[in-house]
Design a protein that fits this description.
- With about 575 residues, the protein is α/β, with parallel strands linked by helices.
- It has 16 helices and 31 strands.
- The chain has an 8-stranded mixed β-sheet. Strands 17-19-20-23-24-29-30-31 form an 8-stranded parallel barrel, surrounded by 9 helices. Strands 8-7-9-13 form a 4-stranded mixed β-sheet, with helices on one face.
- The longest helix has 13 residues.
- The chain is globular.
- It starts with about 25 loop residues before the first strand and ends in a 7-residue tail after the last helix.
């Protein structure tokens, strides 16, 4: 997670002080009849101490803790760590930045003392990595030194995609405590660095995961636990893990499977996308375009209304969506930080949806009507504080790539570079909106042209994919292939690959395009635009290197249930999270 620390002292709208949720005798029932019950026990026993050092989105951890009936006390001083009954450290961002904060605030030594005394501790993601001796991330950088080993980067030259993003499985050892019954189920990972098993740290390891190689997925020794994955983003399975740690006794959570099938490897992700905009009466609605046109073909020409954003996101979470993506499709025209309703959508959604949330639209530098300048980093930071795990950048990434290809210089000033430097490349998705342009000869254009499966209207056998900006309104002199490779170099962690020609048509993904881009980069690619049947998902996974597939309209209109997609994938021998 290649990042440096950023901390805003004055949030622009929604602060953590406004996110408190009171839930007593809470009951949650998942799609697979898993039931979670939690109640505030009163007194100090219901308080969890949270070590939030100020980088990235920890709102979801807060929401999960409160969802399970516990209150939160934030660490302000080293003494707060020593006085904790149970401590959670949800590390997000870069290893060096986190160690700097811990050392500067005098917390590193106190944290080591707390852990050495075998007091209840749960580290998440970076909160696991910091326990090791050092990290190679922008280093070497010295860690807390409690566990032997060095944290290193995944090797993409072996054919794996880095970051490791998605739902993978654990090989759980006996006596793992909070991971009981989790073997054979998927949990959510998002990271570029990992610690490796060795004879020196073997007695700490409670689970490993395979991603090109076996790496440490969790550790346990006595009351000390730490996990590389994100339980707060791992659905009902992750909530069960958190609940077991918080209760410090046998879990109240019962996880029942509808089938005896066990997860075996990294799953292909099925993502539900919600295009959100205000309609003509000012209400925030989910809509869907037909080749990017979101208005009905009626006399009134009204904005197509397919539901309310928070309700639909909650439904897709219960239906088994692996991620939920919000696209604010009026963001390029409006003042993004003035779009309080969209920020509230994220806030309310993250209170009850415990899978990753992505938001896009309007993430760029701008100046408001009063002459105040805002950086894209400030815009992204507000989205993260409101509950987003990833931000999606569209037009601004195109401009940055054009400048980079023209000059060969990484200025560090583009929104893509700023946000990935601060929050890590795994938090930045680049959304590409290309249209197919046919040519008779690939030498006729300066951009990458390929032979296409379906010839053009005049029998053309080749095509290149022209990138567009401003919601597909303006074509640019750059191809999807060139853009994808450039944004990977600039710090993108994932690509959302749309296709204007296929949007809303229901005839399947543009396989030629997805294969072209997914073969060109080493970061994950999400196929988008054109899904109309379950077979379209298995086709794109079988014929390309796409890591995920996204759909909108077929889910909104209930034409194809998410579970039907996943059941079909399993029948076709493609790993899916159930």
């Amino acid at each position: 997670m290649e990042a440096t620390l950023f901390r805003s002292s004055s949030p622009l709208f929604l602060s953590n002080n406004n996110e408190r949720i009171s839930r007593k005798n809470l009951t949650f029932k998942s799609k697979n009849n898993s039931v979670i019950r939690a109640s505030a026990n009163g007194g100090n026993n219901s308080v969890v101490t949270l070590l939030d050092y100020g980088a990235g989105n920890v709102r979801s951890v807060r929401n999960a803790i409160r969802y399970l009936g516990f209150e939160i006390k934030d660490v302000q001083t080293p003494a707060d760590i020593l006085n904790a009954d149970r401590l959670i450290f949800p590390g997000v961002g870069a290893f060096a930045a986190a160690m700097d904060v811990l050392n500067q605030k005098g917390m590193a030594e106190v944290l080591c003392s707390y852990i050495k005394d075998d007091r209840p501790f749960l580290g998440i993601c970076l909160g696991l990595q910091l326990l090791f001796e050092s990290s190679e991330e922008n280093g070497p950088v010295r860690g807390l030194g409690l566990i032997p080993g060095v944290v290193g980067r995944f090797d993409s030259s072996t054919g794996i995609r880095v970051p490791h993003i998605g739902w993978n499985t654990l090989q759980v050892k006996k006596g793992s405590g909070i991971l009981d019954d989790v073997a054979g189920q998927h949990v959510y990972f998002v990271h570029s660095y990992r610690a490796m098993p060795s004879d020196a740290n073997e007695d700490w390891i409670s689970a490993t995961c395979n991603y090109g190689e076996n790496f440490i997925a969790s550790i346990r020794k006595g009351n000390i636990h730490a996990v590389q994955f994100h339980p707060e983003k791992s659905g009902v399975v992750g909530l069960a893990i958190l609940e077991r740690f918080l209760h410090s006794r046998s879990s109240l959570v019962k996880m029942k499977r509808e089938s005896k099938r066990k997860a075996s490897k990294l799953a292909k992700r099925v993502i539900a996308c919600l295009d959100v905009r205000t309609n003509d009466t000012g209400d925030l609605v989910v809509t869907k375009g037909d080749q990017y046109n979101v208005r009905e073909h009626t006399k009134e020409n009204e904005v197509r209304n397919l539901g309310k954003p928070v309700e639909l996101a909650g439904r897709y979470y219960k239906d088994g969506a692996d991620e939920v993506s919000f696209l604010n499709i009026t963001g390029f025209r409006d003042f993004p930080l003035g779009d309080l309703p969209m920020l509230q959508v994220l806030t309310y959604t993250s209170e009850n949806v415990f899978v990753p949330l992505t938001v896009g639209g309007g993430i760029r530098d701008f100046t408001d009507g009063k002459g105040r300048h805002y950086t894209s980093l400030e815009v992204a930071s507000e989205y993260f504080r409101s509950g987003a795990d990833k931000v999606s950048i569209g037009s601004d990434a195109v401009y940055a790539a054009e400048a980079y290809l023209r000059t060969g210089v990484k200025t560090g000033k583009s929104s893509l570079e700023q946000i990935s430097r601060v929050y890590g490349n795994q938090a930045v998705v680049v959304s590409i909106d290309p249209r197919r342009l046919y040519v008779n000869n690939p030498e006729d254009v300066e951009f990458k042209a390929i032979q296409v499966t379906n010839p053009g209207p005049n029998g053309e056998k080749y095509a290149w994919y022209q990138c567009t900006v401003n919601g597909g309104r303006e074509g640019r002199a750059i191809g999807a292939y060139e853009l994808a490779k450039a944004v990977e170099e600039l710090g993108a962690g994932e690509i959302l690959l749309n296709c204007i020609d296929c949007d809303g048509q229901g005839n399947g993904f543009d396989i030629d395009l997805v294969k072209l881009v997914s073969d060109a980069v080493t970061i994950p690619v999400i196929a988008s635009s054109g899904a109309g049947a379950v077979e379209h998902f298995s086709e794109v996974f079988a014929k390309t290197n796409a890591s995920a597939a996204l759909a909108a309209g077929i889910f909104h209109r209930k034409e194809v249930p998410i579970q039907s997609v996943k059941e079909h994938l399993l029948i076709e021998g493609i790993e899916a999270r159930m």
